[in-house]
Amino acid sequence: QVSSAGSAGLKGKVTDASSAAITGVSLMLAELSLTVLTNASGDYDFGNIASGTYTLVITKAGYQSVTESVVILVGTTSTKNYQLAGA
Question: What would the pLDDT profile of 14-26 be if each residue is shown by its tens digit?
Fold first, then answer.
């Protein structure tokens, strides 16, 4: 499902139920074994990745984990924001 035909990207923001940024959230694209962490503003950016369909796993101690399938289109940086619920 992962394609190498052209570069793409995925970035966004992770917040809690009150829309406050969450620092240090782990976001992993399972098929690439690529993990990034959110910064102090809750922002994440996977940078330049291959287009395709990925399983995104979002984890942070004290919050419920999220697992979602994301489709990354060729030549497009997708912006996906997530809100985590407390565990």
Answer: 999 999 999 999 9
